[in-house]
Amino acid sequence: MKLKKLVLTGAAGRLGSYLREPLSKMCDELLSTDISDDIGTLYPGETFVKADIAKFDEVEPLLEGADMVVHFGAIVDERPFEEMLGPNFVGSYNVWEAGYRHGVRRVVYASSIHAVGMYPKTEFIDTEVPHRPDTFYGLAKCFTEDLGRMYWEKRQMESVHLRILSAAQVTNPRALGSWLSYDDLIQLVTRAIDTPVVGFTIAYGVSNNDRAPVDNARAAFLGYRPKDNAEQFAKEILGEAEPADPMDSGTMCHGGPFASVELGQSAVKGMGIVDDRKKT
Question: Number of structural domains, the chain?
């Protein structure tokens, strides 16, 4: 299925950098957008427009003629609520409302495990568990998932909410279960786009890890079948790790460091995430 027009928000981000090329091959026109001034060399059929998703008048014209939106634009860390409000809460409303006004059929949204991050890791959770956010960042994911459900039930606008666990290089024991490889990310987004009917769907963004702590069975109809497994890194990672503290919520909860950080304080700062975004 080749679409006429796709819109990608957050195109300058690390995950956006890996999505741009495969998305450009799925449509006649890929409109990539971000608050950054530049995203590098454009792929065939791709255009770039600088825009702030927190401003409706900048978002709305981008979605004209679009079939679907892949919405990855946001602050990707914990911040004070006032800083999150525009890009992470209002930005989601702007995408859905502008999409509705222009007849967009579906939004594929980068949700997060942090919408349910306070569940203990000893609980194998599925996509139907009630929200249990670990931060204001996670709360924004809950808001957008509920927004998507409402627009489906009230306005028949489809959405797939990808609860990404950790799409980054495996550098710690938690990632042995939570890793989402870039190849599997691309497959997951592709399935969220090319599945004929999705309604309102939540799916976990996680690779085929032996230690994966979540259950994607209810989203099996998407046809997402991850291929990569973080167990290949287990011997090295566990051999270098300090003993786990069972009283530390960052160790015991699905949200990892986001579960233990103070509200409004950065959780990403100490995670050692490698900025290996794809260069163009």
Answer: 1
Q: Which of 18, 109, 119, 137 is catalytic?
A: 137
Provide mean pLDDT across the span 13-33.
Answer: 98
Reply yes or no on whether 224 is catalytic.
Answer: no
Residue 193 belongs to domain with CATH number:
3.40.50.720
Question: Per-residue pLDDT tens for 60-113?
Answer: 999 999 999 999 999 999 999 999 999 999 999 999 999 999 999 999 999 999
Write out the residue range of the structural domain in which residue 164 sits.
3-260
Helix axes of 136-155 and 91-101: crossing angle, nearest 10 degrees: 20
| 215: in domain | yes
- Angstrom CA distances, 136 to 56, 128, 145, stand at 22, 21, 14
Q: List, for residues 183-205, the tens digit of each pLDDT value.
A: 999 999 999 999 999 999 999 99
Q: What was the pLDDT predicted at 234?
A: 96
Residue 278 reports pLDDT greater than 80: yes
Residue 280 in any domain: the answer is no
